[in-house]
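Bit of a strange request maybe. I'm writing a small parser for C-alpha cell strings and I need a real example to test against, not something I typed by hand. Could someone generate the C-alpha cells for this chain?
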Amino acid sequence: MQDKKILFVCLGNICRSPAAEAITKKYLTDENLQDKIFVDSAGTAGYHIGQTADPRMIKHASARGYTLDHIARKFSAAKDFPEFDYIITMDNQNFEDIKSLDHINKFSNKIFKMADFCRNIKIEEVPDPYYEGAAGFENVLDILEDGCKGIIEKLKNNALN
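Reply from user aminoacidic:
Good idea to test on real output. This should exercise your parser:
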C-alpha cells in the first residue's frame, strides 16, 4: 500500500470529523499502518477554530478507547485539495459545500461521503450529534466505527480510487 492522506470533514470540526480522525488513527495503529496513512480533520465553517473537540464527544470516544486531541480548523481549498488523497465528508451538506469549493471540478474524484464506506449500518449521512444527548454521540461513534473500518479495508485492498 502506498502512502495516502485522508481528511475528514464536518461542519464545525469538533464532533464528527475529529472522532473519525481518532477512530481511524487507532485502527491504523492496531494494524501497524500508522506510517502509511496520514489522517486529519477540518470543518466547513470556522465557528470553532482553535478549539478542542466537544467535551461530550471526547467523553464518549474516550470510553471506547479513542483519543481526540485534534484542534479545530477550517477546510482550506487552496491547501487541502492538493494535499489530501481522500476528503471524506460527514453529511450531504458538507459534501455539497466541499464540492462547491472545487470551482473547476479538478478534485471531485477525491471527495467522498462517509456513509458510502459503512458496511453494516445503512445511512444516508452521519447525523450531527451537537444538539443530541448521549445517545446521539453513541450513535455517531457506532456509524464512524463502521465507516472507518470500511475505509481501511478499501485502502488495504487498493480499492479506493
